[in-house]
Amino acid sequence: KKYFEEISANISKFGIHALIVIGGFEAFVGGLELVEGRARFEELCIPLCIIPATVSNNVPGSDFSIGADTALNTITITCDLIKQSAAGTKRRVFIIETMGGFCGYLATMAGLAAGADAAYIFEEPFSSRDLQANVDHLTEKMKTSVKRGLVLRNERCSENYTTDFIYNLYSEEGKGVFDCRKNVLGHMQQGGCPTPFDRNFGTKMGAKAVAWITGKIRECSRHGRIFANTADSACLLGMRKRSLVFQPIAELRQQTDFEHRIPKEQWWLRLRPILKILAKYNIELDTSETAHLEHLTRKVLVPEATP
After folding, report:
1. What's the average model confidence in pLDDT over 18-24?
2. What's the domain range around 124?
3. In terms of Cα–Cα distance, which of 109, 60, 34 is closest to 261?
4. Per-residue model confidence (pLDDT) at position 282
């Protein structure tokens, strides 16, 4: 906010008529501040579009962010390679730390894809009893034909249950049954070639954003000047249920946990029970027709009234 005067001066100096901001949670917060600054600085009254792009997938208003799929693929491939390294070694458990800030998307989805025995995330609080239960489960697993384990941990899932703590706990409690190794994947998750999904997703988002911003410039142009101060002139372009939609940034404020930099509601949390089912835990899951499924919508046909 302290740079508003400098930003406004540069917008005027370079004749900027609109902004397309590509970025993560910081881009979202920056967009909110620019909208708030419109009341004081007329130069900020220009169309604004934010495109979510972060491996953390933690931007409110969008189910997916550009880059998250690439990071997820990198983590999954690395987990597969690490598991393969234990092919000649029996009874070994790997503790792997993933990125994502407070958002557990990468840990959860990579856990599903790589067949993890557990995935610790901030959104689902856990205790030492849960850790012990996971150790006991792995102890029983070592009696089967699959004598290896994989545990994922989101980097900020807990202030006290760190990667080192979990590694030491598993090593001590599993002594004589299995040995333990840990890996912090680090910034390799932010590198690599983009996946086909991310490439196509980025192309679609870019094209849609340019078309929207062009229309807004025409709509808000008056006597050679651009003036846009309505809520729908500053939007975030996000994917919602397989559709690309524009949502006013101001309306997304209520959906955001600013302290932990995550949306208050996240669709992928509903997949967490499947993680335990695949790891062969005994849990109950509602699979009836009345269960709510995110990707299915029922259309109710209302018969026309007869004259």
Report:
1. 96
2. 68-192
3. 60
4. 77
